[in-house]
Amino acid sequence: MAAVLRTYSRNFERRPYLTLCVANSVLMSIGDVSAQLIGLSSGASLAFDLERTMRFAVFGASMGPLGGAWNKFLEVNFPLRRALAGQPATMAKVKVENPIPGLEKELPKGSRLERGAPQFPAGAGALSGGPATEANVSVVQLAKRVAADQFGMAPISLFIFLFSMSLLEGLDQEQTREKIASNYWPILFVNWQVWPIFQTLNFRYVPLRYRVPVGSIAGIVWTCFLSTRVGASSA
To answer: May I ask which residue range the UniProt record assigns to the signal sequence (predicted)?
Structure first.
């Protein structure tokens, strides 16, 4: 696992968006394969549908960079750490030291992608000016991140998912409309029961570069659900 994380981090530094594409594509494919294997073992499916897995792979690849950009947007606009008393919380650019010798003039692309989060003094306390503790994290800002994610991005990404799958399946306009109408709200309501708790932990504890793949790893079960739901509705 450590080797996988090192490989991911190394590739993220060089090609962040491509790395997000590949990682998200692979993980969503795993989710669909898992769902289909469960269906085969239970007798619900008669044959493995490779085309369906490829549709999930394409969707995952297309959503990886969007997920990375969205997480950076949340990081910049809803900073979890508060400034010292008397110091305003500004949206200053984070200065990232270049870790690669010989490239002092050019930061790795992954580092540039992560720049832009609010920067506060190291060891800054909350309003007391004491040492950094867990109390420094703003619960209100964390709640805003989760709310923005669940009421902003989640409904949009679900619509994109259903619409994209319909296009990749070759459905006509009427079939696409029916697929979205019959699946959108039921899936979204289940989403709101599952993801807010996970995203609270993800936004709070996971570094920015790992949030999309961590979400996708946890989302393998969610992809199984989507695969089963969408697969059954198109059968």
So the answer is: none
